[in-house]
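Human: We require from you a protein record containing the residue sequence and its fold in token form, and nothing else.

Assistant:
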Amino acid sequence: MKRLSLETGTQPAFAQARSFFESLGFEVCDPFADYTDNPNSVCMTLVVE
């Protein structure tokens, strides 16, 4: 299984980006790599088959 992951902001300015990623099938996930829980950040992932 391959996975594509990203990080974006939680602020209103990033709402369109989050909506776009969700429309592509990305789902909110736990922080990955060097990211940590942060109220200003949201991690998303998409399983690529």
Remarks:
- The longest strand covers residues 2-9.
- The CA atoms of residues 19 and 25 lie 10 Å apart.
- The chain has one domain: 2-48.
